[in-house]
């Protein structure tokens, strides 16, 4: 449900959904990305977190999850070479009951 809300919110902001729930690999080399969206020359790999408060949602993204998303992004790009010239970033969507979604573009960089 949270991913659906996030995808709709991003579409209202002009993003086009490329993939939802992308899973790559198995075991420790596996990667996963909740949403992959594009607007113009920017491709964003988006992690969606839904919690009772913004603080809890923001803190729910762990370093291990960031690495998993980065692996998923690399695998997705390897299968879609046409996106190689795009600007890439990692975004975070925070969802809290009773509030509008909060989109945090460029929430982290590879290796943070």
UniProtKB/TrEMBL annotation:
<dbReference type="InterPro" id="IPR011335">
    <property type="entry name" value="Restrct_endonuc-II-like"/>
</dbReference>
<dbReference type="InterPro" id="IPR011856">
    <property type="entry name" value="tRNA_endonuc-like_dom_sf"/>
</dbReference>
<dbReference type="GO" id="GO:0003676">
    <property type="term" value="F:nucleic acid binding"/>
</dbReference>
<dbReference type="InterPro" id="IPR003509">
    <property type="entry name" value="UPF0102_YraN-like"/>
</dbReference>
<dbReference type="Pfam" id="PF02021">
    <property type="entry name" value="UPF0102"/>
</dbReference>
<comment type="similarity">
    <text>Belongs to the UPF0102 family.</text>
</comment>
<protein>
    <submittedName>
        <fullName>Uncharacterized protein</fullName>
    </submittedName>
</protein>
């Amino acid at each position: 449900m949270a991913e659906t809300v996030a995808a709709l919110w991003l579409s209202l902001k002009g993003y086009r959904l490329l993939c939802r729930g992308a899973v790559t690999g198995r075991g420790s080399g596996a990667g996963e990305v909740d949403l992959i969206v594009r607007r113009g020359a920017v491709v964003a790999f988006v992690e969606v977190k839904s919690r009772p408060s913004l603080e809890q949602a923001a803190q729910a993204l762990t370093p291990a999850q960031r690495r998993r998303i980065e692996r998923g992004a690399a695998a997705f790009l390897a299968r879609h070479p046409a996106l190689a010239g795009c600007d890439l970033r990692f975004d975070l969507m925070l969802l809290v009951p009773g509030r509008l979604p909060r989109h945090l573009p460029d929430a982290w960089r590879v290796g943070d």
